[in-house]
Amino acid sequence: MRNAEVALETALLTHGLPWPENLATMEALLKAVEEEGARPRPIGVVGGRVRVGLEREELVRLAQGGADKASLWNLAALLAAGKDAGTTVAATLHLAHRAGLEVFATGGIGGVHPVPFDESADLLALSRTPILVVASGPKSVLDLEATLERLETYGVSVVGFRTDRMPAFLSPDSPYPLPARVETPEEAAALYREARALGLGGVLLFNPVSEGLSFQEVQAHVEEANREARRLGVGGKALTPFLLRRLAERTGGRSLEVNRRLLLENARLAARVARALAVE
């Protein structure tokens, strides 16, 4: 029996939540994975070195501010410059696969934005990296229908965990049907094994948050926040943080509570899938 291990991204730590909530949330994720019988492996860049399985002092260093955000297009440059960085979904996928990990837990994936030509590197990374990723859907600020279409185009194996419809990050449901469904971690592990045997890329296991916000409410807030962003000229890298911040304000902090809940639930499910894979 192999070790059950779960990769965790650290952009959540460096850019997702403020200090000290970011560190407290990461520590809760580590504990959740351990409680489910798996080993958590948070991945980041410290002093220009890739670290797979960050120690607590390294997590604190990243969480306290000043670190960059590492995606695939700037990862090599950050290493060469000796920087600290939290890894995005795309960078974590790549580094986790290089380290031999097969399961990765995150909150929401990046995808297609309403702004033309603005697409996350997460999508291409998912298509070419044979890892099972547990997420609660694409981030709520995205064009969800276009993101699901792009996942199909890229040949990503998309499956719902006890759901027939794509969860929308903060919302456990959406109007968009999924092509496959599993009921147990063991079934998810079996599907991943088939995808791996076929030489396919990633398996995206969508896990709906147990208690979230309604799809209609979130979309109304997102549309208003997008209108505000256009008025203020907010775009590029600043757009997603701006929209998520406005979502938190408009929901009275409820979106942050849901975000923390789904992160923990995804970490627990990922650990269970990792345990099922470890019996090979």
TrEMBL record:
Translocase among keywords: no
One MF annotation (Gene Ontology) recorded for this entry: hydrolase activity, acting on glycosyl bonds
A single Gene Ontology CC term: cytoplasm
Protein name per Swiss-Prot or TrEMBL: Pseudouridine-5'-phosphate glycosidase
Keywords on record: Glycosidase, Hydrolase, Lyase, Manganese, Metal-binding
Pfam families the record matches: Indigoidine_A
UniProt keyword NADP present: no
Natural source organism: Thermus filiformis
